Amino acid sequence: MSAKARTRRSNFLIDVALFFICVALLLPLIMLIANAFKTPAEMLQWPPTLLPRNPTLDNFVTVFTETPLLRWMFNSFAFASLSMIAIVATSALAGYIVAKFPFRSINVIFILFLTTAIIPFEVYMIPLYFQVKALGFLNSITGLLIGYLVMSFGIFLIRQNVIASIPDELLEAARIDGAGEFWIFTHIVLPLLRGPLAALAVLAFFQAWTAFAWPIITLTRKTAFTIEVGLANFQSAYTVELSLLSAASAAVMVPSVLAFVLLRRNFVEGIAASGMKE
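^ Carbohydrate ABC transporter membrane protein 2, CUT1 family, sequence as received from the core. Prediction below:
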């Protein structure tokens, strides 16, 4: 067998393997969407059906009329948007300073930033809860934001991109022309970091959008729930309303999928750029 034939055969086998992996990854998503259109009786049938035999919109009608799903989505969107803005701002500032201001002990500070990433949030979640309670921020967006203002990975991502894409000569030339540090940061550094900042914005948004542990202990009023906490209410101590839960999950999935599709290019470019050599 020639080398060209072996290459074609190996490529074909790789394509087949990747196809089956994609099918396996997409199957739960397909089942979720299909279950949203099934009746409760069909949901309990065994063996389960892949596609609904009698599609119905009753589950969606029940979810939107009997639960404050839109309110939960708004709460999650507000929380995720504000957290995204805070993380992008703090990461841009900290990453730029760590990369371009080599003062004494800067490496120690940067290592301290990174070490916070290996500490699980659950370790300091309870002390943080008592602080939020003492401040009177329970059942509010402000209380949620206290746990999602800074991302250590975001600082690392911006630092790597600043080192790789912004030469010191450019900054020195701006300083010689009389530009201040804040002007340099806003008019030179930030425009050159549009891709990485967009990638970080996507990561920060979905981190807050999918947050569950922190919202479930800081939110007790039903109208203040985020979408993840709201979806958990479809499960009680003895039953799970699978058809309603599937309908609500399918509805909630639409805006997040659209956001990722629109920003996927910047996301991939920003993450790839973080792996550049210094």
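The chain has a mean pLDDT of 82.
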